[in-house]
Amino acid sequence: TGADSLVGLYMERSPELMVGLMGTLMAGGAYVPLDPDYPADRLGYMLEDTRCAVVLTLGRLKERLRALAGPDTLVVALDEEWDAIAAQAAGQAPSRLARPDSLAYVIYTSGSTGRPKGVMIEHRSLVNHNQCVRRRYGVTEDDVQIQIASTSFDLFAEEVFAILASGAKLLLEKKESYLAPADLMALIARKGVTILNVPTAFFHQLMASDMPPGQVKTVVVGGEALDYARAAAFVRQFPQVKLINTYGPTETTIISSMTEVTPALLERHAFVPIGAPIDNTQIHILDARGALQPVGVAGELVIAGHGLARGYLHREDLTAERFVANPLVPGQRMYRSGDLARWLDDGTLQYLGRMDTQVKLRGFRIEPGEIEAQLNALPQIESSVVVAHGAGDARQLAAFFVARDGATVDTEALRAQLQAVLPAYMVPAAYLALDRLPMTPNGKVDRRSLESVEMVRAPMAGRVAPRNASERRLAGVWQEVLGVASDALGVHDSFFALGGHSLLAVRLMAAVGREFGQLLPLEAIFQYGDIAAMAAALERQAPQQAMSLVTIQAQGTAPALFAVPGVGGNVLSFAPLSHAIDRLLAERGAGPQPFHGLQQGGTSGSVEELAAGHLAAMRSIQPQGPYRLLGHSFGGLVAYEMAQQLLAQGEQVALLLLLDTLAPELMAQGGDDETAVMDAARAEANAACIPAAQVEAYLQLAQSQLAAIRSYQPKALPAPIPAALLRVRGLEGKPQTTPEDYGWGTLLGAAAPVRFADGGHMTMLHNDHALPLALQLLELNEAPAVERQ
Questions:
Q1: What residues contact 110, with CB distance under 8 A and at least 6 apart?
Q2: Dihedrals φ, ψ of 652, to 5°?
């Protein structure tokens, strides 16, 4: 590489990511973050636009990357090249190849024309930013900070460089360890975190959970307007903690202004200002003619100084439009932010909103025009408008569209099509078909009317309102959790279609338990995915069946996968894996993969009895084979026994996948230590905010499963079947004599292929590892049977 050479980083949060990042900069290049969670279409565009000659990745992601990158792109999997790297000359400092005006990184932001645009940031801008925030945040070598932001978000650069340049400690933790407020606070206490740098929306969640900050001394927020009431409550409750509110577009190197939120500041204003410019930065408020506005008068916020980006990659026209000559300082440039603001008499700035349609949600900058361009490109859509509706934390994207030739459009299919080309944060949560889009008198789309609560929440055609007391009570709970109006809820609307996700599912189940005094299991969100079904289940007050089949993905024409969870687990743990499989299939132009979970609901039964019960449930939706089975940990034993019984009954097993499952003999020897397993089960239950009574039932189930392991006497399969073991790399908690295949060769009748998966025994199914695991499962599922034997 050399100065301004672009190097792609296609990796999740990991030590290898940091090695690739630092190596790129030390070699004089600029890094381009390529988030593995992005759809293939978006990643392909970014690779084409940047023309990266080199992309650094990991072995588990290499094949997917090769399908996206061009034939001339050099793909380097760092974790497969350590020997070659170690053989390089050491002990001498590398030459300084980068200059102050060399590129440091290119980050893509949402684009109003339908394609994202790459923002080019130079070293001088990044150094200026880092030096300022290190001083203003008070970072010392004794500090500890968690790295939270995605690499594709410019805050990542602040987290990494400002902390490491100060000699402080940067923690690389899995996403699941801090998504829930309780988990984050536990992590802060356990790791001694002193600086917390989070999006404003996440800070609002922390305040809503009323969690103490532990030993944190500084909290930095930004990305959206900071709620005045929450800021005031935090300052009042934790006067020893410094709260800093920041503002800044990506085009001006992360942040351009900041302020410490103090009682005195809040006494002067009824809102939280965005502060004053950072070092070597100038901010002006201009009117439409480019003249300075006086204090108190609103105008466009424009930014000048060392923080300005070089411009947009390969977009000279857009660069010239947004980066203009500074009339106040000849020869310098300034960036037109498109934000509306005004100076206050104390020398700080008040943010007043956007001058265009751009919105910010949960810290992400979104151009609705990019989403609209994707919608309008679909053959069934004539025209569309995307707006943000709702208030506070319940604010979300809504898409309004006019169908071509008056056709009926399946909104779930519409959502799936957008998920294939847009990042998750840009996929609208709500969809509404209109006969025509509302227009203003001057002939423009009336976005303001679409943003109104009354219009967005108008009942959709065919929506069924709550019909009895139970449905009305439940609709109230859904309304509170989802942040929607009751008249927008139909009893047949899907929780996930209304914007629900896994964290909201946990909150919903807890809220339902408080309202109805009944504890529904977490997986009930799959079984009773709408108000009508859930209310009926609550009215029945029927005990949970000992065995249950939970459909995670019903759609698709491919043979179904049937999955059995591990000790103390439930089928909710398979949701990230199922979603990742569907995403990979969508990238290939294929339909989703039917996926069903098989879960024990009672606290008794041997492995043989559990397998027989699961077979009965499985055959209720697929009477005949061939069957495809998957099991995690203890669930792998049950899946193996299911295969044994199916073969004895003359059925065919097309695939058996064992996820980090020890063979029964090794498992009975203590491979799954009872205390460790019970502690892990308890931690998982508490992390999911499951009520105490449900936690106790959860632990009793785990104990009965451990007893079943000890009494299991398996038989060898009568004939080899297509099978594979996907195991984690470490052997923590397993017998010292554990072989690579975990002892399965004898029972399976042939050597099963062994593949390695990311994460640990309990985390291999989590979101951070779901995509590479899904890729391996698809490869095994599609391999000819002769190769798998």
A1: 116, 358, 364, 365, 366, 367, 370, 426
A2: -105, 135
Identify the helix (H) or strand (E) that includes residue 23: helix 15-26
Rounded Cα distance, 241 and 239, in Å: 6
**CA geometry: angle at 664 spanning 662 and 666, to 5°?**
60
Contact between 432 and 399 under an 8 Å Cβ cutoff? The reply is yes
Residue 401, strand partner residues: 384, 433
Burial 664-674 (b: 16+ CB within 10 A, else e): bebbebebbee
Q: Number of helices (H) and strands (E) in the chain: give both, helices first.
A: 29, 31
Length of the chain as a residue count: 789
Residue 182, token pair as written in the block: 């309780």
Section 30-53 average pLDDT: 91
Give me the DSSP letters along 586-600. HHTTPPP--EEEEEE
Write the pLDDT tens digit of every residue in 483-521.
Answer: 665 555 777 777 766 666 555 676 777 778 777 777 676
Predicted TM-score (pTM) above 0.70: no
Kindly give, in sequence order, each residue whose CB lies less than 8 Å from that of residue 610, ignoring residues fewer than 6 positions away.
Answer: 547, 600, 638, 641, 708
| Cα–Cα separations (whole angstroms), residue 42 to 20, 46, 375, 786 | 22, 6, 15, 36
Distance CA 195, CA 146 (A): 8
Say if residues 170 and 163 touch (Cβ distance below 8 Å). Answer: yes
What is the rounded distance in angstroms from the CA atom of residue 182 to the CA atom of residue 551? Answer: 29
- Say how many CA atoms lie within 13 Å of 755 toward its Cβ: 22
Task: List the single range of 418-432, 672-686, 759-773 with lowest mean pLDDT.
Answer: 672-686
> What is each CA distance from 100 to 393, 774, 788, in whole angstroms?
40, 42, 55
**Lowest-confidence region among 87-96, 402-411, 431-440:** 87-96
Element (H, E) at 477: helix 469-482
Q: Which residues contact 724 (CB under 8 A, 6 or more apart)?
A: 655, 656, 657, 658, 752, 753, 754, 755, 780, 788
Structure tokens at 465: 């309102």
Cβ 653 vs Cβ 626: under 8 Å:
yes
Residues 6+ apart with CB under 8 A from 318: 117, 312
pLDDT of residue 544: 44
Long-range contacts of 738-747 (CB under 8 A, 24+ apart): 738/662, 738/666, 738/671, 742/658, 742/661, 742/662, 742/663, 742/666, 743/662, 743/663, 743/665, 743/666, 744/658, 744/663, 746/663, 746/716, 747/640, 747/663, 747/664, 747/714, 747/715, 747/716, 747/717
CB atoms under 10 Å from CB of 47, counted, come to 21
CB burial of residue 30 (10 Å; 0-12, 13-18, 19+): buried
Crossing angle of helices 692-711 and 674-687, rounded to 10°:
150
Task: Note whether 415 and 497 are within 8 A (CB).
Answer: yes
Query: Among the listed ranges 88-102, 273-287, 494-508, 659-673, which one has the minimum average pLDDT value?
Result: 494-508
- Chain-centroid distance of CA 235 in Å reads 30
What gap in Å lies between CA 701 and CA 699, rounded to an integer? 5
Annotate 289-312 with DSSP letters as a single string.
TSPBPPTT--EEEEEEETT---EE
Give the separation between CA 476 and CA 486, rounded to whole angstroms. Answer: 7
Q: Is 766 helix (H, G, I), strand (E, B) or coil?
A: coil
